[in-house]
Amino acid sequence: MPSHVGSYEGKGDPDNFLHLFEGSIRMQKWAIPVSCHMFTYTLKDSTRIWWNGQKKGSIFNYEDLKAKFRSHCSQQKKFTKTHLAVHNIKKKEGESTKAFVSRYTEDTLQILGLHEEQRISGFVHGLLKRSLVEFLSTDLPTTYKDLMEKTYTWIDAKEVATNGTSNDHQERSNKFKRNSS
Questions:
Q1: Keyword Nucleotidyltransferase on this protein (predicted)?
Q2: Which whole-number Å values give the CA distances from 100 to 4, 88, 90, 103, 151, in the listed order?
Q3: Beta strand extents in 91-178 (DSSP E only)
Q4: Under a CB-based contact definition with an 8 Å cutoff, are residues 59 and 65 in contact?
Q5: Domain ends where: 76, 91, 110?
Q6: Are residues 66 and 137 in the same domain?
Q7: Are the beta carbons of 168 and 98 closer than 8 angstroms?
Q8: Would you tell me how many other CB atoms lie within 10 Å of the CB of residue 131?
Q9: Which contiguous run of DSSP H or E holds residue 76?
Q10: Euclidean distance between the first and the last CA atom of the chain, given in angstroms as a whole number
Q11: Could you give the CA distance from residue 35 to residue 30 in angstroms, rounded to a whole number?
């Protein structure tokens, strides 16, 4: 068994695992019966228990094995997010702006077919900092790259203005002082 296939323990997307396994079938030029036997050696933990519970003769061929495996592991399948999910990505209380930029960028890269305008709108919508929203809204960039450059300009300027203190820490401190008086 090629080492890159690894084993499937019931966690992760079963389709991703099948993709790797079927690549090995083609690379190794296994016959279908060999493929079925090799597949069972990749199963462990809950999927091994599932496999051991199958009645003898209940699986007819590799396609049947694949269908039953998918059906059993379907709750682990990763579902693709739609463009509407972008508006659910919000900056968390206490999360730095840099951390939010990273998380937002990573999350939106997983949304297939997301338009540039939707990505920009979702980012601004997800911010908690009014001063950053106002800064970005003045001559709002039309590309996500330009939006990120403008965001980092704001972050850098705030850090310089606060002598290197994290802008997020400074704003929380000021908010605490206002609420205390």
A1: yes
A2: 33, 13, 8, 5, 11
A3: none
A4: yes
A5: 76
A6: no
A7: no
A8: 12
A9: none
A10: 68
A11: 6
Alpha-carbon gap, residue 118 to 4, rounded angstroms: 37
Q: How many CB atoms lie within 10 A of CB 122?
A: 22
Tokens 């999350």 belong to 107
Q: Which two tokens stand for residue 11?
A: 């966690």
Q: Give 135-154 as a DSSP string.
A: HHHTT--SSHHHHHHHHHHH
* Residue 154 sits in the same domain as residue 95: yes
The pTM (predicted TM-score) of the whole model is 0.53
| Contact in structure between 77 and 13 (CB atoms under 8 Å) | yes
Domains held by the chain: number: 2
Q: How many CB atoms lie within 10 A of CB 2?
A: 11
Range of the domain at 51: 14-76
